[in-house]
Amino acid sequence: MSLSQLQEVPIAKTVLLVGPPGAGKSTFCHQTVLHNLAVDRAVIFLTTEYGTHEAEALLKERGLITTSTDLLKFVDGYNQTVGLPVTDRPDTLNASSGNLTSIGIAIAKHQRKIGRKGILLVFDSLTSPYLLCGSDIVRFLRLSLSRFAGDGNSVLACFDEGSGKEEDLVGMMSISNGVVNIGIEGDRRVFNVISIL
After folding, report:
1. How are beta strands 154-160 and 13-19 bridged, if at all?
2. I want to staple 19 with a disulfide (CB 3.0 to 4.6 A). Which of 23, 91, 149, 195 is the partner?
3. Cα within 13 Å of Cα(105), Cβ side
C-alpha cells in the first residue's frame, strides 16, 4: 500500500495512526489534509498539541496555497486547554482537550456547516485528551468518532504509543477499522499497516 493510499481514508472508516513521539504522526496528518483538499474533499482538522495558527502555518509550509473556509475547518483543542487566547475565525471552533463533550460538539457543528457527507476528520492527536480524560477516550472513540464515520465520513486519529495503559490502546485499536503503526528505523520512517478493513 502506497503512502497516498494510506492518506485516502475510506468513507465510513476510522483509522488509528500509532507511533512513538517524534515518529512523524503530525507530519502524516498534515500531508493527509493537503492530499484530501487537493481532491476537493472537505476536511475538519482537529489539533490538541498546537493551535489553529500554527496548524495553518505548518500546512502552508507543506504546500497549502489558501485556506478555503468551504473545504477546511479547524477545531482548536489546544489554546483553550492551556489557557491561551482562543482564535476568533469563521473556520475555527474552540474546545478543551479535557472536555470530550466540547470536542464532540465542535465536530458536529462543523459537520452541519459543511452540509455534506464524505468529510475527513483528522484528529491530531488523541494523546492530550487521553492524558486529561483517561480511559474515557476509548468511549469517545466508540461513541462520537465512530458515529461521525458511520454518518458517511472518515476519521484519521493519532495516538502516541507508550503514553497510556496498554489495554486502552488495545481498546482504541479494536474499535478502529484500520491501524497504521509508524516507526523510525535509522533515518527513515516505516509504516506498518496492521489492518485496514
Report:
1. parallel
2. 23
3. 9
pLDDT in tens, 121-171: 999 999 999 999 999 999 999 999 999 999 999 999 999 999 999 999 999
Does the pLDDT at position 69 exceed 70?
A: no
165: left (phi over 0), alpha (psi -120 to 50) or beta: beta
CB 79 within 8 A of CB 51: yes
Indicate the DSSP class of residue 187: T
Domains (range + CATH), the chain:
8-196 (3.40.50.300)
Cβ–Cβ < 8 Å for 156, 123: yes
Higher pLDDT, 185 or 101: 101
pLDDT at position 196 over 80:
no
Cα separation, 95 vs 109, whole angstroms:
12
Q: Verify cis geometry, omega within 30 degrees of 0, for the bond prior to 4.
A: no
Taking the alpha carbons at both ends of the chain, their separation in whole angstroms is 13
How far apart are the C-alpha atoms of 125 and 46, rounded to whole Å?
A: 8
Residue 141: other Cβ atoms inside 10 A: 27
Give the β-pairing of 72-76 and 188-196.
unpaired
Q: How far apart are CA 74 and CA 52, in angstroms?
A: 7
Nearest to 138 by CA among 174, 102, 103: 174
| pLDDT band of 189, cuts 50, 70, 90 | confident
